[in-house]
Every structure is written in C-alpha cells, then in structure tokens.
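Need tokens for this chain, all 892 residues.
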Amino acid sequence: MKFVLLDGNSFCYRAFYAIRELRNSKGQPTNAVYGFITMFEKLLKEVGPDGVAVAFDLKGPTFRHKAFEDYKAHRAPMPEDLVSQMPIIKEVVRALNVPIYEKEGYEADDVMATLARKLKALGHEVTIVTSDKDALQLVDKKIKVLNPQKENFIYDEAQVKKRFGVEPKRVVEIMALMGDASDNIPGVPGIGDKTASKLIIEFGTLEEVLKNISKIKGDKIKENLDRHKEQARLSRRLAEIDQNVPLDFDIEKMKRGEPDAEKLAELYQALEFKSLLKNLTVLEEKNSDDPGLHYSLVQNWPDFEKLKKRLSGEKEWAFDFETTGTDPLLAEPIGVSFCFHEKEASYVSFSGTGKVLDAKSCLLFLKDLFEDPKIKKSGQNIKYEMLILKNFGIELQGVHFDTMIASYCLNPAKPNHNLDDIAFEHLELRITSIKELIGSGAKAISMEEVDLERVYRYGCQDSDVTYRLSKILKKKLVEKSLLHLFEEIEMPLVRVLGDMEAAGIAIDLPLLKELSKEMEKALSNLTCAIHKEAGTPFNINSPKQMAEILFEKLGLPVVKKTKTGASTDVEVLSQLSEIHSLPKEILKFRELSKLKSTYVDALPLLVNPKTHRVHTSFNQTVTATGRLSSSNPNLQNIPIRKEEGRKIRKAFIAQGKDKSLVSADYSQIELRVLAHLSEDKMLIQAFQEGADIHRYTASLIFNVTMGEVTETMRGSAKTVNFGVLYGMGAFSLAKSLGITNDAARDFIKAYFERYPRVKKYLDDVVEKARKDGFVSTYFKRRRYIPEILSRNPRVKSFAERTAINAPIQGTASDIIKIAMRHIADHLAKKQLKSKMMLQVHDELLFEAPKEELKALVSMVVKEMQGAVSFKVPMKVSVKVGPNWLDMKEFEP
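Here are the structure tokens for all 892 residues:
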C-alpha cells in the first residue's frame, strides 16, 4: 500500500503565502484554510495514496531547543492571521477523516520519520511531503520525499545522491558540516554545501572527517574544523531526525475513508467557501432528486395554447430562454421556460427531431403577454431575454425582478452572480450549470446538440429557481435597506442598457484599416530600435528573453521576482525607465501592440452583420463600486491621454452626414460628491461660486490670491484634490509631485487644515468600515470591506483607501444611472430619433439627427444636472462632432 505523510506546518505556510488575502464576511482570514484544502485535494488526486496522515509542530520547545538554545531562534513568529487559521485547518483535516499526529518535544519531521519507519516495517511504500531538506536523510527504497515547492519533485535514492553526492543516510553528515541557515544550525564556519559534500564523499562521516583534519587541504578549513569540532557534532545531533517518537500508531485510521461531509459543509459554510461546498456529495443534486418538482415539456400547439391561457391568468412569472449562443442579437432561441409556482415549470421546445413549434410563431403568439405591463416578469439577467424578444419585434414590459442584479446589490464583492452560485448560496441547491450541460472552451457544444430531455429539465430548473430566488432575495433587499437602490436605480436601468446595446455604434472601417497599417509600421520601427539598443534580436513578447536582456546582458537591477524568475511587468519597466532608455521603448511597444490587437484589429471583427454596427455589452454586476463595465468590446478602457488612443476614438462615428455624435460629461462629479457628503463649507462654497476648484484649492494651500496661483501650484492642488478621493498618502503624493515625503506630508496637512470637514468625513468613513464591515453610498449601495480588520499593514492600508473611495465613486455612479433612466424616459416620451449609445464612467454618448441637436442637448443637460439635489450644483459639459474625437463645445 502507498501512504502519504504531510508536513502540516510547511503546507500551511505555503498556502498562506500562495493566496495573499481572503476573508469571510465577518473579517476572519481564510486564505490559508482555502489554500490548504485545494492543495491537499490536488496532492491526493495526483499521488492517489491508500492512506494519509498529517503531522504538525506543537508550540513548545523540542529536544533540539534544549540541546541548543538558539535553535530556530532567528525565525519570525508565525503571522497572526495564520495563527488564527491553524485550529480551523486542523478541524478541516479531521472532517476529511485524516488523522493528525503531533507530539510535545518533537517536530513534525520526527513524527513523520517515526510513522514512515513503522509503515516501512509493515512493507508499505511512503511518500513524505515536505520542503524541508532534513527529510532527505530518510529516503530509501521504500521512502521517498515529495517537495511541493519544486512542482512536486520527488526525491528517491538516485535524486538525493545526485544532489548531495552521497546516499541519503549520509545527508546528515553533510548538514553537520554545512549547517542549515533556515533552522539556525551553525555547522562549521567557512564550509558550504560543496565543501561539505566533498569531505563526506572522501571520508564517509563527520567523525572520520574530524579524525583526518591533517589530511584536508586548505589551512582555513583545517583551522575551522579543529576549532569547531563540538559545534559540528552538535549540528549533527540537531540535524538528525528522531525516528523513535512515542506515538499511538494506528494504521487503520490512516487508511483513506469517506470524509464527514456534513461537518465539512458546516465548516465551508462558515468560511463561505461556495466553490468547495458545491463539490460535497451530501449536497449533490438536491434539486433534481426533489419528488415535489413538476416540470413539463411542451412540444405541440394545443399544449402551447393551454400554457398561454395559464400564463395570461397569472400576475407574475419567471421565464428563461435557451439559445444557440451568448450574443442575444445573433443567437436563435431553441426553447423558453416559464414558472409561476414554486417547483412547477414548463418548457416550450422549438428544436429537436420532428419539431412542431417554431420560435417566431410561438413568441408572436405570446406578444400580448410579453408586452403586458401588468404581468410582472422575473429573470436571471433578464436583459438577455429582453434583447432576444427585440429580435422578433417584441418590447418586453412589466420587467419586475432580476435575480442576478439582486444578488449583486446584496454583495457586489462576489466574484460572480451566476444562477448556480446564487441558488447554492440562498437555497442550498446544487443545480446544473451551463458548463455541465454544454462544456467549456474548445470542447463546448451548442445547446442544440444537447439531448432534449436534459435541455428541457435544465430550462425548467432555471425558471423555477429564478422564481423561488426572486422571493427570497427581495426579502433580503428589504432587510438590508437596499430595495430602493434595486427598484429605483438598478432595475429601471435594465431596459435602458438593453436599448443601448441594441442601438450599437457605427465605426469607420477604412480608418481602422489605415490605423492598423500605421501601427504595424510603428511597431516594426520600434522593434528595430529595441533590438539595436539591446545589441541583439530577441522576442519582445517573451518575458523570459526580455529578462535575460535587461538583467543579464545589460545588468539592470532586479526590481521584483516571480515564481518563474525576474519580473518584467509594467511597474518594473516603469521603474527601470528612469535609469535606462530600453525599458521605456519596450513599454511603448507593449502599449501600441495592445491597442492594435485589442481595438484596431478587433473592432472590425465585432461588426454585427445584420446592423453593420458594433454592439458592446454593458454589465451591471461586475464592479464592486457600482460602476458599469462593458465587454465585447470594452469601450470604457480606450486610453485617450496618448495620440494613438485618441485616434481610435476617431473611428467611432455618427452613421450618416445628417447625424452627429453628442458627448455629455459630468465635470468633477466625484469632488462635488465629496463636497456634499463631507459638508465642508469651503469646498461647497467653491462649487456654488463656480470657481476653478483646483485654482481655488491652490490659493488656500499656498495662501495666495486666485490671481497669484501659478500653473505649477494649480497642478499640485489638482493632484491632491483627486488624490484625497483615493486615500492618497504622503509617499504617493511625493512620488506624483516629485517632492520629499516631508514636503508631501506638509502639503496634505495644509489641505486638511483648509478643508477640515473633509478630514473628519474621511476618518468617520474608515471608522464606520471597521465597525460595520462595509461602507455605503448616498443611495445606500454597500461595499463590504472585511480586509480592513487585517493585521497585515499593506492589506489594511489598501482596505482603508477602498473605504474612502467607494462611497464617493459609488455615489457618482448612482447619479449617472439615475440620469440615464430619466434621459431614456424622455427620449421615449417625446419619440425622438436620437439614441443613447455609450456610457463611459462620467460621460454619455448619443447619436442624434442634426435637427434634434438643440432639443437633445437641452434635455440631457437638464436631466444630468437635475439627477440629484445636492448642496453643490452638478455641472455638465457637452460636445458635438462627426466622430468621438473631433468634437467641439456645443453652441445652440
């Protein structure tokens, strides 16, 4: 039989540092626990042992400490965040039905060695999992050592001899001479691993070396050996592993058995390990085994007519489309499911062998119900359903509840809000995910290829679970005072974003083609210049080759390291650019290459063949701050500070000479939000008077009149004004302004002396985050920040900066969402031909017929400025032009 013995402490440390920060909603650090579990499961899967045990060190001194007071004395104490997780890790190990071995006065190495000896005596094979090289002395024909830090490299007898030049049992002799810095074993001064190995190969043991000092070459080595004989002997005793620890050895307990799934479920729920919870067999497919489920398949017209009659008599239902793809403007529906009672759903199939029903006829037959505002409709990402129906000329009305958006409002920090995740979290149901149905990546199949029996049950499950979740999530929104945010800001935005996605935007294909050629030429020239400066050709896209050029050939300092070697990321190259020109050129190459591939070459491929426009997807449930994001393509991250990025904006055009693009942008909205939230009189006064806020701030800080403020002063004040929004400290400010840390501290002090309420507000926000675990926007949107309780100064500092920024950025995001709703309502009410097409942070982009420009601009400015009634006015600047770059201030 094969047994695995795991060095628990070593594994815990590795897990702790592998995942830098992870906490549950109560602020309890969980990174080491999660890392331990995932690494442990992976190890067992790869090795496949018949039995397993985990050994831990105990806190007290061992026999080695008694022999040598300074043994491991230089080691830093275990981080407190790891200390708090050790008991939990042990609980998990026990719940996994794996025995734990530990003994006072001994280390985990001694415990594992004793267990290995006993197992070997019974004829079993043993793999010791540890990164400690001391364990290599135990290797023999039955015992191997697996080092998890070296990609699970396995040391057998041959590998040990290859490393040290001697068989495993004599490794301890080498360690006696060379010592071990990690354990503070002194060894003999001046003797490293190569010399130690050479001496033991020649003489066999430490004692033989000490007997033959006169025969050894090198006066200094002789002198050190003679002077430190007893120290060498002590080092050998310290390095030698004790294989006779008194343990209650029970091989039956070590044999692998079934884990205690209920105990694991309890632990994982407390730790909020949703992904691990899903894998527990105790919770497998509770939903599909429920005898109370009533799912039906509709495949003929009489049954479909009966379903419509039932739907028309209901006040509320959830529905869900199954389609041929993820792009709602191109995908074809293959079926739709409806649910209006818990655990009861019907699936109408438009596909399959001998199909009778077709999508167009069925959906148009239901058009009056879909467009009836009195019937409340719920869905999971209901915007998708809305866009599918638009393809058939159906305008969905009565949009009532979106479970994905409700989940997001409850916890915006969740990594995703997929239906299977939400169902598991709130219903404790493990439902079939889309990946389980069609696969993922290159092996994914179309929904049309899936067996109809599976598809119909999957569709019914989705609408049923969505219906159930809508009831539960609504209650939770009420409990957390989030219903207003959900119903008045987020849900009305669904229709607005659906219309914007459907509208799309025209792009100038010939211009992009020309830009691609220009960039290709520029990249070619940059490549030649980079190779010339490097003195040799190399692959600029290869981090490994670049590292060789920068750090080996040019001898530039290594700024930071990764698992694969010296880092060449943007931060590193930016630092190196200050001392050498090559990194600067490489950064230019990377930026240009990314622009070309991400936008210039990608945009033409994303043009919809039906509309001949590009349709981005707006995501309401991605950012933790409440901001919208966009994808396929991402139009919110086009860099506009550099010429190349601005040229890309020129490719977004108004379709037709009779139309123009209109850009409406909030001016300094986050500073205005700060003024209102902080209630600082000076800041409010500045905005009420319409002053240049950066010049105004500079005049206060430098104690000069507005007229005496120089551009340098204004620039410094601007940096501080915006830096305050992100919790910028003296170090960052000093770096930004090129001044000393002391000068930066004085600058920040002067700022807060002039705006005292701002300082109080920021301090109060951080304190509230510590107390409640979250911060809120003006409209009650929450951002949970459990990391603020971290004992890690870096993590804590980042959490405090997040706490400062989240209410400000989140409130600004909410304001523009309110404005978007009001503008969309006005466009529909007045039946204007103008369309709202894009939202990019604080900017809205419209396409408008020229005859509507005046009316549109007047209405947009009114709605954006009137979205909220704050103590400071909202200011909006409007520009008009034929494309997104060449725009001028609008003059009516």
